[in-house]
Amino acid sequence: MSFTPSRRISAAVIVLLVGSVLLGPGISTADAGGNPATPGNFTGKAFDQCSAPSQRAMNVWRRHSPYRGVGVYISGASRACHQRHLTRTWVRKQLAHGWKLLPIHVGPQASCNRHAHLRGHRISANPRRSYARARAQGRAEARSAVRAARRLGLSRGSTIFYDLEAFSTRSASCRNSSLRFLSSWTQGLRSHGYVSGVYSSASSGIKLLDRARWARSGLTLPQQIWVADWNGRANTHSSYLHAGSWTNSRVKQYRGGHTERHGGVAINIDSNYVDLRVHRTRKATHHAKVHHTTKHHTKAQHPKHHATRKHQAHWVYLPGGSTPEVQNPVADRLCTTRRLNLATYFSTGVFRRENLHARLQCVLKQNGLYPHDVNGYWGRRTAFSVNKLQSGSDRKVRTTMTRGDWVSLLVTGNHTSWLRRGVRGADVVRVQRALHAAGVYGVYITGRYDRATQRAVKTYQRRVGIRATGTVGAKTWRYLAKGRV
């Protein structure tokens, strides 16, 4: 599918909001009383319609239609229709009758969505401070949606889906601002106890989210997705998604606008198939700050670790455990381990893969090559730092950061100790990152030199033409430092 048609967004700039969802000045901390979280666990068919149907229509369709879920537009400045029937009482009755509600919020759209009626209702594409304006918009929309949900009696634990219509993905600033907006949307909803969902075209918004997921982008991804892929098949499969992405956390809109009649009542709807399961998660482990720059695993917490020695090891979270990061700590909120551990490190430069710029600045700063604030903007300072790295590692000085440059940068500052099975520590972290940059996969960044790391090292050694020992000694360090790929 090269293009997925949009949902209905009205050409009117001023949208009439029903009194029951007018937003108050603040967000109450009280839960919506009595109603179950929705949709919760649900597998089956759902429909969505621009305006919430009347109670009579809902009763008839409950008895005669194959649908058991209904998408409802609860809020947002880009919402299309006047919700005459949508009230707190309407919500309570549908939930009591066994309907599963899928609340939808329609706010600012992607900056490259050029529909005229969206003027003034777009996500900011300003890249300053890592798209700070777009992130602020995402948080604001989350607050707005939460207020509307609570006015309608939608309890904590309910999912609210952000409706991001189809858009062109050719513009990097459009892609990056949209992803950061959705990341903040998710953070905002979760902070108030709601589940984050995103509706978008399979070929644009959903495809970008899936790429961000597999690239370990560091973005906060939605817990559930609603895929618009009008292939006519009532399932949650889409060719635009990896099979392992959002398992049991998908809705698919498989048919666009059409009229169906059940029990003598006709409604113009979109048809969806739902496969949602509530995944219980453990509460996050608490952490204590160390030197106000990194986090310390509570399991290792001990008074002796608070010594103020200049070269004390710092600890950071990594998938699968904690490992000491002995390089210079980076006092910047954008430089977290999660952001730096990527599945692959692509070539980047001015106007190229802008989502990597902040991560590049973090690693440069960690190694003393970028003594400035991290802003995600490729300017003179970033270019100078990259050239300094390239000249220092005897690599060709150029206007881009190549994969070989990433390999060289990611092993800078190591102790170059001999690494083998069973070894743990920051040197292992850096080698694992460098292997990803070199295009050698099948290894997680854990800080543990396990069997997978040994196999990956052998693959790298064969690729660059040295003896495949599976250990990292002086020669392998030298090849990595020179950025050989």
UniProtKB/TrEMBL annotation:
Pfam families according to UniProt: PG_binding_1 (PF01471), Rv2525c_GlyHyd-like (PF08924)
Domain of life according to the entry: Bacteria
Looking up Gene3D superfamilies in the UniProt record yields:
Glycosidases, PGBD-like superfamily/PGBD
Annotated Rv2525c-like glycoside hydrolase-like domain ranges read: 61-274
Region listing for Disordered, in residue ranges? 285-304
Q: Where is the Peptidoglycan binding-like domain?
A: 424-478
Q: What is this protein called?
A: DUF1906 domain-containing protein
Taxonomic source organism: Nocardioides marmorisolisilvae
